[in-house]
Specification:
Elements: H1 2-28, E1 32-36, H2 38-45, H3 61-66, E2 71-77, H4 85-102, E3 107-109, H5 113-121, E4 125-132, H6 141-149, E5 152-156, H7 169-172, H8 189-201, E6 204-206, H9 212-221, E7 227-228, H10 245-253, E8 257-260, H11 264-267, H12 271-281, H13 283-291, H14 296-306, H15 308-312, H16 319-332, E9 337-339, H17 360-368, H18 373-391
Parallel strand pairs: 1-2, 2-4, 3-4, 4-5, 5-6, 7-8, 8-9
Helix pairs in contact: 1-17, 2-4, 6-8, 13-14
The chain binds zinc ion.
Amino acid sequence: MKTLLLTGIISLYSLAIFSQDYQKIHNKAILVDTHNDFLTQTMEKNFIFDTDLKGKTHSDLNRMKEGGVDVQFFSVWSDGEQIDPYAFANRQIDSLDAVIKRNSDKIVKVANSIELLKAVKNRKIAALVGVEGGHQFENDLGKLKALYNRGVRYITLTWNNSTPWATSASDETNPDGAKNSEGKKGLTAFGKEVVQKMNSLGMLVDISHVGEQTFYDVIATTTKPVIASHSSVYALCPHKRNLKDDQIKAIAKNDGVIQINFNSGFIDPTVDKRESAFLDKHKSEIDSLMQAGVNPFFAQESIYIKYADESQQLRAPFELVIQHIEYVINLVGVDYVGIGSDFDGIFLPPKQLDDVTNYPLITKALVEKGYSEKDIDKILGGNLLRVLKANE
Ligand SMILES: [Zn+2]
Protein backbone atom coordinates (compact mmCIF):
# COMPACT_ATOMS: atom_id res chain seq x y z
CA MET A 1 0.00 0.00 0.00
CA LYS A 2 2.81 2.34 0.97
CA THR A 3 4.71 1.56 -2.27
CA LEU A 4 1.54 2.08 -4.27
CA LEU A 5 1.04 5.47 -2.64
CA LEU A 6 4.68 6.40 -3.26
CA THR A 7 4.47 5.35 -6.94
CA GLY A 8 1.29 7.40 -7.22
CA ILE A 9 2.96 10.46 -5.76
CA ILE A 10 6.01 10.04 -8.00
CA SER A 11 3.92 9.69 -11.17
CA LEU A 12 1.77 12.68 -10.22
CA TYR A 13 4.98 14.61 -9.59
CA SER A 14 6.51 13.67 -12.97
CA LEU A 15 3.21 14.51 -14.66
CA ALA A 16 3.33 17.98 -13.10
CA ILE A 17 6.97 18.43 -14.19
CA PHE A 18 6.10 17.25 -17.68
CA SER A 19 3.15 19.60 -18.02
CA GLN A 20 5.32 22.51 -16.84
CA ASP A 21 7.94 21.49 -19.41
CA TYR A 22 5.70 21.53 -22.44
CA GLN A 23 3.98 24.75 -21.38
CA LYS A 24 7.38 26.35 -20.88
CA ILE A 25 8.58 25.17 -24.29
CA HIS A 26 5.32 26.39 -25.84
CA ASN A 27 5.54 29.82 -24.21
CA LYS A 28 9.19 30.25 -25.10
CA ALA A 29 8.83 29.23 -28.74
CA ILE A 30 7.69 31.68 -31.42
CA LEU A 31 4.39 30.20 -32.55
CA VAL A 32 3.56 31.15 -36.12
CA ASP A 33 0.25 30.27 -37.76
CA THR A 34 0.21 31.08 -41.46
CA HIS A 35 -3.49 30.77 -42.15
CA ASN A 36 -6.49 32.11 -40.28
CA ASP A 37 -9.67 33.16 -42.10
CA PHE A 38 -11.20 35.35 -39.41
CA LEU A 39 -11.13 38.52 -41.54
CA THR A 40 -13.33 36.96 -44.20
CA GLN A 41 -15.71 35.81 -41.45
CA THR A 42 -15.84 39.41 -40.24
CA MET A 43 -16.82 40.65 -43.68
CA GLU A 44 -19.86 38.40 -43.81
CA LYS A 45 -21.00 38.27 -40.21
CA ASN A 46 -19.77 41.48 -38.61
CA PHE A 47 -17.90 39.64 -35.87
CA ILE A 48 -15.54 41.90 -33.91
CA PHE A 49 -12.17 40.25 -33.33
CA ASP A 50 -11.45 42.01 -30.04
CA THR A 51 -14.63 40.76 -28.35
CA ASP A 52 -15.34 37.38 -26.76
CA LEU A 53 -16.46 35.13 -29.63
CA LYS A 54 -16.11 31.80 -27.85
CA GLY A 55 -18.60 29.33 -29.28
CA LYS A 56 -19.10 31.47 -32.38
CA THR A 57 -15.67 31.39 -34.04
CA HIS A 58 -12.38 29.51 -33.67
CA SER A 59 -10.52 32.73 -32.92
CA ASP A 60 -10.62 36.10 -31.23
CA LEU A 61 -7.84 38.31 -29.94
CA ASN A 62 -7.81 37.18 -26.32
CA ARG A 63 -8.11 33.48 -27.15
CA MET A 64 -5.24 33.84 -29.64
CA LYS A 65 -3.06 35.24 -26.87
CA GLU A 66 -4.22 32.46 -24.53
CA GLY A 67 -3.14 29.85 -27.12
CA GLY A 68 0.34 31.37 -27.23
CA VAL A 69 0.16 32.65 -30.82
CA ASP A 70 3.06 35.02 -31.48
CA VAL A 71 2.73 35.56 -35.20
CA GLN A 72 -0.47 35.37 -37.22
CA PHE A 73 -0.87 35.65 -40.95
CA PHE A 74 -4.48 36.82 -41.43
CA SER A 75 -5.92 35.53 -44.65
CA VAL A 76 -7.73 37.92 -46.98
CA TRP A 77 -9.78 35.69 -49.23
CA SER A 78 -11.55 36.16 -52.54
CA ASP A 79 -12.87 33.77 -55.17
CA GLY A 80 -13.02 36.61 -57.69
CA GLU A 81 -16.82 36.65 -57.63
CA GLN A 82 -17.01 39.93 -55.72
CA ILE A 83 -17.78 43.05 -57.76
CA ASP A 84 -14.39 44.55 -56.84
CA PRO A 85 -11.97 41.95 -55.38
CA TYR A 86 -9.30 44.60 -54.75
CA ALA A 87 -11.68 46.75 -52.68
CA PHE A 88 -12.97 43.58 -50.97
CA ALA A 89 -9.38 42.79 -49.91
CA ASN A 90 -8.76 46.32 -48.72
CA ARG A 91 -11.92 46.30 -46.59
CA GLN A 92 -10.70 43.13 -44.86
CA ILE A 93 -7.32 44.76 -44.21
CA ASP A 94 -9.15 47.86 -42.90
CA SER A 95 -10.95 45.75 -40.32
CA LEU A 96 -7.63 44.22 -39.16
CA ASP A 97 -6.07 47.69 -38.93
CA ALA A 98 -9.01 48.87 -36.80
CA VAL A 99 -8.51 45.96 -34.37
CA ILE A 100 -4.79 46.76 -34.16
CA LYS A 101 -5.49 50.46 -33.54
CA ARG A 102 -7.84 49.63 -30.66
CA ASN A 103 -5.44 47.08 -29.11
CA SER A 104 -1.94 48.42 -29.64
CA ASP A 105 -0.87 46.80 -26.36
CA LYS A 106 -1.73 43.32 -27.67
CA ILE A 107 -1.23 43.21 -31.43
CA VAL A 108 0.85 45.10 -33.99
CA LYS A 109 1.22 44.94 -37.75
CA VAL A 110 4.77 44.11 -38.83
CA ALA A 111 6.47 44.65 -42.18
CA ASN A 112 9.49 42.37 -41.81
CA SER A 113 11.21 39.84 -39.58
CA ILE A 114 13.02 42.52 -37.54
CA GLU A 115 9.72 44.21 -36.62
CA LEU A 116 8.24 40.76 -36.04
CA LEU A 117 10.88 39.78 -33.50
CA LYS A 118 10.50 43.14 -31.77
CA ALA A 119 6.74 42.60 -31.45
CA VAL A 120 7.27 39.12 -30.03
CA LYS A 121 9.79 40.49 -27.53
CA ASN A 122 7.19 43.04 -26.44
CA ARG A 123 4.65 40.21 -25.99
CA LYS A 124 2.43 41.43 -28.79
CA ILE A 125 0.98 39.33 -31.59
CA ALA A 126 2.82 40.17 -34.82
CA ALA A 127 0.18 40.48 -37.53
CA LEU A 128 0.81 39.98 -41.22
CA VAL A 129 -1.62 39.58 -44.09
CA GLY A 130 -1.84 36.76 -46.63
CA VAL A 131 -3.93 37.25 -49.76
CA GLU A 132 -5.70 34.02 -50.69
CA GLY A 133 -6.93 33.43 -54.21
CA GLY A 134 -4.84 35.67 -56.47
CA HIS A 135 -7.93 37.54 -57.72
CA GLN A 136 -7.50 40.54 -55.44
CA PHE A 137 -4.88 42.46 -57.42
CA GLU A 138 -6.98 42.15 -60.57
CA ASN A 139 -4.06 41.19 -62.88
CA ASP A 140 -2.42 44.51 -62.06
CA LEU A 141 1.11 44.44 -60.60
CA GLY A 142 0.59 48.02 -59.35
CA LYS A 143 -2.24 46.79 -57.15
CA LEU A 144 -0.08 43.85 -56.05
CA LYS A 145 2.55 46.37 -54.86
CA ALA A 146 -0.17 48.42 -53.13
CA LEU A 147 -1.29 45.29 -51.25
CA TYR A 148 2.32 44.70 -50.23
CA ASN A 149 2.38 48.23 -48.83
CA ARG A 150 -0.65 47.36 -46.67
CA GLY A 151 1.17 44.44 -45.01
CA VAL A 152 0.47 41.58 -47.40
CA ARG A 153 3.43 39.21 -47.11
CA TYR A 154 2.15 36.22 -49.05
CA ILE A 155 -0.21 35.53 -51.91
CA THR A 156 -1.83 32.13 -52.37
CA LEU A 157 -1.76 32.12 -56.17
CA THR A 158 -5.16 30.45 -56.56
CA TRP A 159 -8.06 29.43 -54.38
CA ASN A 160 -10.18 26.39 -55.33
CA ASN A 161 -10.85 28.23 -58.59
CA SER A 162 -8.12 29.32 -60.99
CA THR A 163 -6.96 32.81 -61.88
CA PRO A 164 -6.46 33.67 -65.58
CA TRP A 165 -2.72 33.18 -65.01
CA ALA A 166 -2.54 30.10 -62.70
CA THR A 167 -4.57 26.90 -62.51
CA SER A 168 -5.83 25.51 -59.20
CA ALA A 169 -5.68 21.95 -57.85
CA SER A 170 -9.46 21.71 -58.27
CA ASP A 171 -9.41 22.76 -61.91
CA GLU A 172 -6.30 20.78 -62.85
CA THR A 173 -7.79 17.55 -61.48
CA ASN A 174 -11.17 18.12 -63.15
CA PRO A 175 -11.29 17.20 -66.88
CA ASP A 176 -13.82 20.02 -67.37
CA GLY A 177 -11.86 22.40 -65.13
CA ALA A 178 -10.74 25.85 -66.24
CA LYS A 179 -7.44 26.29 -68.11
CA ASN A 180 -5.27 29.39 -67.85
CA SER A 181 -5.64 32.26 -70.35
CA GLU A 182 -3.10 30.52 -72.62
CA GLY A 183 -5.42 27.47 -72.72
CA LYS A 184 -3.07 25.30 -70.63
CA LYS A 185 -2.50 24.12 -67.08
CA GLY A 186 0.04 25.96 -64.96
CA LEU A 187 1.40 29.51 -64.96
CA THR A 188 1.09 31.80 -67.98
CA ALA A 189 3.86 34.23 -68.93
CA PHE A 190 2.08 36.82 -66.75
CA GLY A 191 1.84 34.25 -63.93
CA LYS A 192 5.63 33.90 -64.04
CA GLU A 193 5.91 37.69 -63.92
CA VAL A 194 3.71 37.67 -60.79
CA VAL A 195 6.09 35.21 -59.10
CA GLN A 196 9.12 37.31 -60.10
CA LYS A 197 7.44 40.50 -58.84
CA MET A 198 6.65 38.81 -55.52
CA ASN A 199 10.26 37.60 -55.27
CA SER A 200 11.54 41.12 -55.85
CA LEU A 201 9.19 42.66 -53.27
CA GLY A 202 9.94 40.05 -50.60
CA MET A 203 6.45 38.55 -50.66
CA LEU A 204 6.18 34.82 -50.03
CA VAL A 205 4.79 32.77 -52.91
CA ASP A 206 2.16 30.44 -51.43
CA ILE A 207 1.47 27.24 -53.35
CA SER A 208 -1.47 25.97 -51.23
CA HIS A 209 -4.52 25.34 -53.46
CA VAL A 210 -2.54 25.39 -56.75
CA GLY A 211 -2.50 22.50 -59.23
CA GLU A 212 0.58 20.35 -59.77
CA GLN A 213 1.50 22.02 -63.07
CA THR A 214 1.27 25.46 -61.46
CA PHE A 215 3.31 24.12 -58.54
CA TYR A 216 6.18 22.93 -60.74
CA ASP A 217 6.05 26.12 -62.84
CA VAL A 218 6.40 28.12 -59.62
CA ILE A 219 9.34 26.00 -58.44
CA ALA A 220 11.05 26.52 -61.82
CA THR A 221 10.42 30.29 -61.72
CA THR A 222 10.96 31.39 -58.12
CA THR A 223 14.37 32.54 -56.93
CA LYS A 224 13.24 32.44 -53.28
CA PRO A 225 11.90 29.72 -50.93
CA VAL A 226 8.13 29.20 -51.17
CA ILE A 227 5.51 28.26 -48.60
CA ALA A 228 2.42 26.10 -48.52
CA SER A 229 0.48 28.25 -46.03
CA HIS A 230 -2.18 25.63 -45.27
CA SER A 231 -1.68 22.22 -46.89
CA SER A 232 -1.40 18.65 -45.65
CA VAL A 233 0.07 15.38 -46.91
CA TYR A 234 -1.43 13.54 -49.90
CA ALA A 235 0.16 10.17 -48.99
CA LEU A 236 -1.81 10.16 -45.71
CA CYS A 237 -5.00 11.70 -47.08
CA PRO A 238 -5.35 11.78 -50.87
CA HIS A 239 -7.24 15.06 -51.17
CA LYS A 240 -6.62 16.90 -54.45
CA ARG A 241 -5.21 19.95 -52.68
CA ASN A 242 -2.78 18.05 -50.45
CA LEU A 243 0.91 17.73 -51.35
CA LYS A 244 2.40 14.61 -52.92
CA ASP A 245 5.79 13.28 -51.79
CA ASP A 246 7.59 14.70 -54.85
CA GLN A 247 6.10 18.13 -54.14
CA ILE A 248 7.19 17.95 -50.49
CA LYS A 249 10.70 17.00 -51.66
CA ALA A 250 10.71 19.87 -54.17
CA ILE A 251 9.73 22.34 -51.43
CA ALA A 252 12.52 21.03 -49.17
CA LYS A 253 15.00 21.37 -52.05
CA ASN A 254 13.76 24.95 -52.54
CA ASP A 255 14.35 25.50 -48.77
CA GLY A 256 10.64 26.35 -48.36
CA VAL A 257 8.16 25.14 -45.75
CA ILE A 258 4.88 23.20 -45.58
CA GLN A 259 2.44 24.50 -42.97
CA ILE A 260 0.07 21.67 -42.02
CA ASN A 261 -3.67 22.37 -42.37
CA PHE A 262 -5.90 21.13 -39.50
CA ASN A 263 -9.05 20.53 -41.57
CA SER A 264 -10.42 17.05 -40.77
CA GLY A 265 -11.13 16.37 -44.46
CA PHE A 266 -7.49 17.12 -45.37
CA ILE A 267 -5.91 14.95 -42.68
CA ASP A 268 -8.27 11.96 -42.33
CA PRO A 269 -9.09 9.95 -45.47
CA THR A 270 -12.34 8.63 -43.91
CA VAL A 271 -13.87 12.08 -43.49
CA ASP A 272 -14.60 12.96 -47.12
CA LYS A 273 -17.09 10.12 -47.63
CA ARG A 274 -18.81 10.65 -44.27
CA GLU A 275 -18.97 14.40 -44.82
CA SER A 276 -20.52 13.96 -48.29
CA ALA A 277 -23.18 11.68 -46.78
CA PHE A 278 -23.92 14.31 -44.13
CA LEU A 279 -24.25 17.06 -46.74
CA ASP A 280 -26.42 14.82 -48.98
CA LYS A 281 -28.73 14.10 -46.07
CA HIS A 282 -29.32 17.83 -45.55
CA LYS A 283 -29.13 18.84 -49.20
CA SER A 284 -32.67 20.17 -49.49
CA GLU A 285 -32.11 22.61 -46.62
CA ILE A 286 -28.75 23.75 -48.03
CA ASP A 287 -30.32 24.22 -51.47
CA SER A 288 -33.19 26.28 -50.14
CA LEU A 289 -30.77 28.55 -48.26
CA MET A 290 -28.75 29.04 -51.45
CA GLN A 291 -31.92 29.77 -53.43
CA ALA A 292 -32.66 32.44 -50.83
CA GLY A 293 -29.32 34.06 -51.78
CA VAL A 294 -27.10 32.69 -48.98
CA ASN A 295 -23.48 32.17 -50.08
CA PRO A 296 -22.81 28.38 -50.50
CA PHE A 297 -20.09 28.40 -47.79
CA PHE A 298 -22.43 29.95 -45.23
CA ALA A 299 -25.38 27.80 -46.33
CA GLN A 300 -23.30 24.70 -45.55
CA GLU A 301 -21.90 26.21 -42.36
CA SER A 302 -25.37 26.81 -40.94
CA ILE A 303 -26.16 23.11 -41.43
CA TYR A 304 -22.97 22.06 -39.57
CA ILE A 305 -24.11 24.28 -36.68
CA LYS A 306 -27.79 23.29 -36.78
CA TYR A 307 -26.96 19.56 -36.79
CA ALA A 308 -23.91 19.84 -34.52
CA ASP A 309 -24.48 16.41 -32.93
CA GLU A 310 -24.00 14.84 -36.35
CA SER A 311 -21.29 17.16 -37.70
CA GLN A 312 -19.10 16.85 -34.58
CA GLN A 313 -18.91 13.10 -35.21
CA LEU A 314 -17.12 13.85 -38.48
CA ARG A 315 -14.08 15.38 -36.80
CA ALA A 316 -10.71 13.63 -37.27
CA PRO A 317 -8.68 12.32 -34.32
CA PHE A 318 -6.20 14.91 -33.01
CA GLU A 319 -3.31 12.48 -33.46
CA LEU A 320 -3.59 12.80 -37.26
CA VAL A 321 -2.32 16.41 -37.19
CA ILE A 322 0.85 15.12 -35.52
CA GLN A 323 1.07 12.28 -38.06
CA HIS A 324 1.06 14.78 -40.94
CA ILE A 325 3.78 16.86 -39.26
CA GLU A 326 5.86 13.72 -38.65
CA TYR A 327 5.36 12.46 -42.20
CA VAL A 328 7.06 15.58 -43.58
CA ILE A 329 9.83 15.26 -40.99
CA ASN A 330 10.45 11.61 -41.87
CA LEU A 331 10.43 12.35 -45.60
CA VAL A 332 12.61 15.49 -45.78
CA GLY A 333 13.66 16.51 -42.26
CA VAL A 334 12.53 18.78 -39.45
CA ASP A 335 13.37 22.04 -41.27
CA TYR A 336 10.45 22.07 -43.67
CA VAL A 337 7.24 21.84 -41.64
CA GLY A 338 5.04 24.16 -39.60
CA ILE A 339 1.45 25.08 -38.77
CA GLY A 340 -1.22 26.68 -40.97
CA SER A 341 -4.38 25.85 -39.04
CA ASP A 342 -7.02 27.30 -41.41
CA PHE A 343 -9.04 28.16 -38.27
CA ASP A 344 -12.25 30.02 -39.13
CA GLY A 345 -11.97 28.82 -42.71
CA ILE A 346 -12.90 25.22 -41.89
CA PHE A 347 -16.00 23.66 -40.37
CA LEU A 348 -14.30 20.62 -38.85
CA PRO A 349 -11.05 21.04 -36.93
CA PRO A 350 -9.79 17.78 -35.41
CA LYS A 351 -11.05 16.62 -32.02
CA GLN A 352 -9.42 18.51 -29.13
CA LEU A 353 -8.32 21.36 -31.42
CA ASP A 354 -11.56 23.25 -30.82
CA ASP A 355 -10.09 26.71 -31.22
CA VAL A 356 -6.92 28.81 -31.04
CA THR A 357 -6.51 28.17 -27.31
CA ASN A 358 -5.58 24.54 -28.04
CA TYR A 359 -2.21 25.02 -29.81
CA PRO A 360 -0.30 23.89 -26.67
CA LEU A 361 -1.66 20.37 -27.31
CA ILE A 362 0.57 20.20 -30.38
CA THR A 363 3.63 21.13 -28.34
CA LYS A 364 2.59 18.57 -25.70
CA ALA A 365 2.29 15.83 -28.33
CA LEU A 366 5.69 16.69 -29.83
CA VAL A 367 7.30 16.62 -26.36
CA GLU A 368 5.65 13.23 -25.71
CA LYS A 369 7.07 11.96 -29.02
CA GLY A 370 10.53 12.90 -27.79
CA TYR A 371 11.33 15.86 -30.05
CA SER A 372 13.96 18.23 -28.70
CA GLU A 373 13.08 21.79 -27.77
CA LYS A 374 15.20 22.97 -30.71
CA ASP A 375 13.17 20.88 -33.16
CA ILE A 376 9.86 21.91 -31.59
CA ASP A 377 10.88 25.58 -31.96
CA LYS A 378 11.49 24.97 -35.66
CA ILE A 379 8.11 23.28 -36.17
CA LEU A 380 6.13 25.88 -34.22
CA GLY A 381 7.58 28.82 -36.14
CA GLY A 382 11.35 28.78 -36.66
CA ASN A 383 11.10 27.21 -40.11
CA LEU A 384 8.62 29.79 -41.33
CA LEU A 385 10.76 32.64 -39.95
CA ARG A 386 13.77 31.27 -41.87
CA VAL A 387 11.74 31.35 -45.10
CA LEU A 388 10.40 34.84 -44.38
CA LYS A 389 13.95 36.16 -43.82
CA ALA A 390 15.18 34.47 -46.99
CA ASN A 391 12.49 36.32 -48.95
CA GLU A 392 13.33 39.77 -47.55
ZN1 LIG B 1 -7.68 27.97 -48.30
